[in-house]
């Protein structure tokens, strides 16, 4: 079992996530790559004090980038889409 504070790394605030937050009560987070759906749900409920309806997890592959004449690669990471039950919300600017 992972430590709760290390599971949710940061909230992703983009144009798409803001629209989803307003219309469907969905919030996007960057999470630890070793965390599973159950751990993400428990961490969100305990740390953010909300009721979670659903969790979707997406593994994002790092892009290949050129640095001078050598090719490099950004790190792989995991994204979680957390759907909250009606009546719950997260203050995105206070997190």
Model description:
This protein has 95 residues and is of the alpha+beta class. The chain has a single domain, classed as Alpha-Beta Plaits, CATH 3.30.70. 27% of the residues lie in helices and 37% in strands. The protein contains three helices and six strands; from the N terminus they run αβαβαββββ. The strands form two sheets. It has a four-stranded antiparallel beta sheet. It has a two-stranded antiparallel sheet with strand order 4-5. The longest helix is centred in the middle third of the chain and has 12 residues. The two termini are 24 Å apart. The model has no long low-confidence stretch (mean pLDDT 94).
Layout: helices, strands, pairs:
Blueprint: H1 4-7, E1 8-11, H2 15-24, E2 26-31, H3 37-48, E3 52-60, E4 64-67, E5 70-73, E6 77-84
Antiparallel strand pairs: 1-2, 2-6, 3-6, 4-5
Organism: Syntrophus gentianae
Subunit structure: Part of the 50S ribosomal subunit. Contacts protein L29, and trigger factor when it is bound to the ribosome.
Family: Belongs to the universal ribosomal protein uL23 family.
Q: What key phrases describe this protein's structure?
A:
95 residues, globular, 4-stranded antiparallel sheet, single chain, two-stranded antiparallel ribbon, ribonucleoprotein, Alpha-Beta Plaits, alpha+beta
Helix content: 25-40%
* Count of spatially separate domains: 1
Stated plainly, the CATH topology is called: Alpha-Beta Plaits
Overall pLDDT level: 94
Function: One of the early assembly proteins it binds 23S rRNA. One of the proteins that surrounds the polypeptide exit tunnel on the outside of the ribosome. Forms the main docking site for trigger factor binding to the ribosome.
Keywords: Ribonucleoprotein, Ribosomal protein, RNA-binding, rRNA-binding
Pfam families: Ribosomal_L23
Protein name: Large ribosomal subunit protein uL23
């Amino acid at each position: 079992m992972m430590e709760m504070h290390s599971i949710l790394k940061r909230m992703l605030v983009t144009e798409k996530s803001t629209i989803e937050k307003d219309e469907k009560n969905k919030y996007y987070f960057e999470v630890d790559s070793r965390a599973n759906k159950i751990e993400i749900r428990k961490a969100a409920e305990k740390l953010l004090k909300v009721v979670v309806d659903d969790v979707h997890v997406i593994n994002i592959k790092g892009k290949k980038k050129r640095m001078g004449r050598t090719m490099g690669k950004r790190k792989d990471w995991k994204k979680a889409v957390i759907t909250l039950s009606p009546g719950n919300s997260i203050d995105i600017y206070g997190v």
